[in-house]
Amino acid sequence: QAQLRESGGGLVRAGGSLRLSCTASGNIRKMYGMAWYREAPGKQRERVASITSTGVINYDDSVKGRFTISRVDVNNTMYLQMNSLKPEDTAAYYCNANVLLGAGSTTTYWGQGTQVTVSS
Question: What DSSP string runs through the chain?
Answer without folding.
Answer: -EEEEEE--EEEETT--EEEEEEEEESEEEEEEEEEEEE-TTS--EEEEEE-TT--EEE-TTTTTTEEEEEEGGGTEEEEEE-S--GGG-EEEEEEEEEEETTS-EEEEE---EEEEEE-
